[in-house]
Specification:
2 domains, alpha/beta, Rossmann fold, binds ligand SAJ, five-stranded parallel β-sheet, 13 strands, 17 helices, 430 residues
């Protein structure tokens, strides 16, 4: 195949746009494609429609240089990178309709020797499914010349522009030639190892990485529920256990959010429902944690009365970002608003200036600033460990009922031991 000069990136979201921008910054001609006119216009104006450090400078630079251009239409190109959403259906199976739609637009543009990469996190077999869809649209072509590969993204939101360069990558080809062509394309910007395998193993590797984290967070969440029941501080417990050279327990929280870890394990469960027992239980455990938090607030309201004011600190799915997708904090807040109609909920989220749609419909929820929420609250519920909350003084919490789901105020502490009565004489052999 001739050298790749023109790349089309389909889907200009959290992964597609950074990938398009970094390829363009490394000398390739990149056309970004999106179904949203708003996204296309923003990119062509050199702007980024969401928050991601350093991405703005990459996009503005590439657009100004003329190496990045966005449009609604899928062009002819030497290589295609498909980075569209793969949400799950109500039964937890993957919805591949966005991948199918992208393939249907690519097929008519193919000459026959292009590289087509699926980057979207996908269930095992999705790359083959995309290939079949392309070939159904173009029965005149075949995998003898067309190169199809899967190259899952592994970047952490908030560090995308760094991790695109520094993270090792896995490339799975439907053929060896496809894997090698994809490796050469990613080598334009990736300084780390690029490891070749087959497409299904690459699909599973991505799902397994996120499931590994989900299972380990579930272990921490289970420990937090057990510790609460037997009356010990879970953060102190984990800190101590992690002193063992081969133990590294993660941190409990109010549940697992984001668009990856709370979603991807279900693709494995759907592929092997009988076999994926631990992976499925981890999802159930983590999805059950928000309800446990709601019950903690119910217990607090039994003490302070139903007409209490509750300060809810944090709505994002994790610390120091504005992303609320699949955030357990949103689910917990709406459940509280729904179940405890006489309570007043003051939601504090320093990274946004309006309540998300799901919460704006409740009369008893308002967005508040930290100081006034703490001042008025009878109950303080900490859901996200934003830096802004770490400096809250103990005096601001005095006399209030505190539920700290992230352990930023309540642990790990230096536990006060019972004073040891020095009966030393009896221990010394006389
Ligand atoms: N969480 C805990 N306790 C912990 C760690 C995380 O409760 O000890 C919670 C967070 O609060 C959050 C959720 O888990 O609600 C997920 O956060 P995260 O920081 O673990 O992960 P994401 O979703 O931001 O990004 C993950 C990353 N995957 C892994 O670390 C294996 C990232 O590398 C992937 O690229 C990304 O998913 C993705 O796109 O798949």
């Amino acid at each position: 195949m001739a050298e790749i000069k023109n790349v089309a990136v389909i889907g200009l979201g959290y992964i597609g746009l950074p990938t398009a921008a970094i390829l363009a910054a490394n000398g390739l001609n990149v056309q970004g494609v999106d179904v949203s006119q708003r996204t296309v216009d923003a990119v062509n104006a050199g702007q980024v429609p969401f928050v991601e450090p350093d991405l703005g400078a990459f996009v503005a630079g590439a657009v100004a240089q003329g190496t990045l251009y966005a449009s609604l239409e899928t062009p002819k190109a030497d290589a295609y990178i498909v980075a569209v959403p793969t949400p799950f259906n109500a039964d937890h199976t993957a919805d591949l309709s966005y991948i199918e739609a992208a393939a249907d637009k690519i097929a008519p543009q193919l000459r026959g020797d292009e590289l087509v990469i699926l980057e979207s996190t996908s269930p095992p077999g999705a790359t083959e499914h995309m290939a079949n869809r392309l070939l159904a649209g173009r029965p005149d072509l075949s995998l003898d010349t067309l190169k199809i590969a899967h190259c899952p993204e592994r970047v952490l939101p908030g560090r995308v522009m760094v991790e695109l360069v520094t993270n090792d990558r896995i490339v799975g080809g439907l053929t060896r030639e496809a894997a090698e062509a994809a490796r050469d394309l990613y080598a334009n910007f990736c300084d780390a190892e690029i490891l070749l395998t087959d497409a299904k193993t690459a699909e599973m590797a991505k799902l397994v990485e996120n499931s590994y984290r989900d299972v380990n967070i579930a272990f921490a969440n289970e420990l937090s529920v057990i510790s609460d029941k037997i009356g010990i501080n879970v953060w102190e417990l984990i800190k101590l256990a992690n002193h063992h050279p081969r133990v590294n327990i993660l941190q409990p929280g109010p549940g697992v959010g984001g668009h990856c870890i709370a979603v991807d394990p279900w693709f494995i469960v759907a592929a092997a429902p009988e076999e994926a027992q631990i992976i499925k239980q981890a999802r159930v455990t983590n999805d059950g944690k928000p309800n446990w938090v709601v019950r903690k607030i119910e217990a607090a309201l039994e003490k302070v009365g139903p007409a209490a004011t509750i300060a809810i600190l944090g709505l994002a799915f994790k610390a120091n970002i504005d992303d609320m997708r699949e955030s357990p904090a949103i689910g917990i807040t709406s459940k509280l608003a729904d179940e405890f109609g006489s309570a007043r909920l003051l939601a504090v989220e320093p990274h946004v200036d309006a309540l998300p749609k799901g919460l704006a419909t409740f009369d008893n929820v308002v967005l508040s600033d930290l100081e006034s929420a703490l001042e008025q609250a009878d109950v303080v519920l900490l859901l996200v460990d934003h830096d802004a909350f770490k400096s809250v003084l103990p005096s601001a919490l005095a006399g209030k009922h505190v539920v700290d789901t992230r352990g930023i105020w309540t642990g790990p502490t230096d536990i006060e031991l019972e004073p040891v009565v020095a009966e030393s004489s009896s221990l010394v052999a006389s």
